[in-house]
Each structure stands twice: as structure tokens, then as C-alpha cells.
């Protein structure tokens, strides 16, 4: 009996494979085979030949079994090489420092650019101007310009209170405040010491607290844009003003009658 060795390439480090008998040796040992056994032997013979051809065509390489999920026999390989030195934190810190320095430099540059552009003559409305502003300005003009700038606000002692544009609505509101002692008969107000209307003032709105929601709050329907409009919408104030007006007219008529009577007696 002749025994042949399989032509498979051996993997380095693997155990030696046992000798295998070929299908020709099996046929020679036994002569009385059935048709089914002969067919299976022929199939094994063809299978061995195909394996030999595949083994000869593949290069001599080392094949490691790959590990699948749940397969403990597989070999898990490292995804990166460990140098044994911890340098990751230093690198990340260095990158963060570089980014912070770059942001700081860019912020300083933008601030400096904004400061320089404030002194620039060319502004967004430069095309609308009839002539460019002069480069050299005399001392007299500079003093005049500074005076105009100072008059725009009440100064640092009054927290730079601005001088708003005087409109008819603001004038009427200021006049009402000047005559506040005649507004409400139930309250006594000190007489105003204004000889003329103020130049620097600000108008604000009083926001009532949550405890005054039902007691001292003006509903939204009764709220108006100006003080004069609120007074004109108040019915009690209207009645009071009508009564006062009729009293003043009666006094004037009485004075006119007295004057006429005196002039008649003299003649």
C-alpha cells in the first residue's frame, strides 16, 4: 500500500498534520464496491485534486484566525501600538493653548481695529455728505464743538442725562407736572419752582408690584401714551375741571360787572 502526503502549506508554529490515504489506495485495498461507494470515492478523489491545486496557487503567508463577536477562539489584535509613554494629555493641552492664544490675538486685533476705525473720517454715511470734514480745525472751532458736545448731556454728576428732543406732547406733559397742585384736590403737592421748562430730563414708567394688582394698578385699557391723554380719559378729573372752570368764569363775570358799575358811577 502506497501512502501519499497532502500538499497543503503548513502554517508556521502549527502541529504536524497526520498522513492521509488517497482515494486510489482505498480502491486498491478493496475490489468489491457498490455503485454508491464508487461514486462517493470518485467525489472524494475530485475534491482532493481541487484542494491540491488551490494549495499550490496560494502564496506562503501566515493566516491568523480573526475573532468574531462571541467567539472566544478568535485572536483579538490591538488597534494601535502602545509606546508605553502617556503623551496624549500633553498634546491635547498644547493644542488647546494654541487655540486660546490664537483667539486672544484675534480679539486684540479686532479691538484695536475698532478703536482705529472710530477716528476714521470715512463712515457709512460718507457718500451722503456734501463735503469731507476738514483735517485741520482751529482752536475756536474745537472749543465750539466741545461746547455743543457738553450741552448734549447734563454731565457726569447727573450720570450723563441726555437732552431729549422737545415735542408738543413732552411740552404738555411738563406743563401738567408744573401745575400738579391743581390736578388732585385730595392730595397736597408742593408748588413747582420751575421758572421755565427743564432742558435735561427723562421719562420713565412705574411698574407696580404683584401686591398692587387689584389695589393701585391702572388697567391696560385705561393706560395712555402721555399724562395729558390719561387725564382727559379720567371722568372724575373731567367733572372736577368743569366745576372749577365754571367757578372761574363766574368770578370773571362778577369782576367785569363791578368794573362796569364803577365806570358808570364815575361818569
From TrEMBL:
Region (Disordered) residue spans: 1-33
**Localisation per UniProt entry:** Nucleus, Nucleolus
Q: Which GO terms describe its molecular function?
A: RNA binding
Q: Name one GO cellular component term.
A: nucleolus
Q: Where is the composition biased (Basic and acidic residues)?
A: 24-33
Q: Which UniProt keywords apply?
A: Nucleus
The processes (GO biological process) annotated in the record are: RNA processing
The record ties this protein, via Pfam families, to: Fcf2
Classification via InterPro entries: Fcf2/DNTTIP2 (IPR039883), Fcf2_C (IPR014810)
* Domain Fcf2 pre-rRNA processing C-terminal residue range list: 151-244
Q: Identify the domain of life.
A: Eukaryota
The keyword Nucleus belongs to this UniProt entry's keyword annotation: yes
Question: Which parts of the chain span the membrane according to its record?
Answer: none
Return the PANTHER family for the record.
DEOXYNUCLEOTIDYLTRANSFERASE TERMINAL-INTERACTING PROTEIN 2
Q: What is this protein called?
A: Fcf2 pre-rRNA processing C-terminal domain-containing protein
Q: From the UniProt record, report the name of the gene that encodes this protein.
A: 100641037
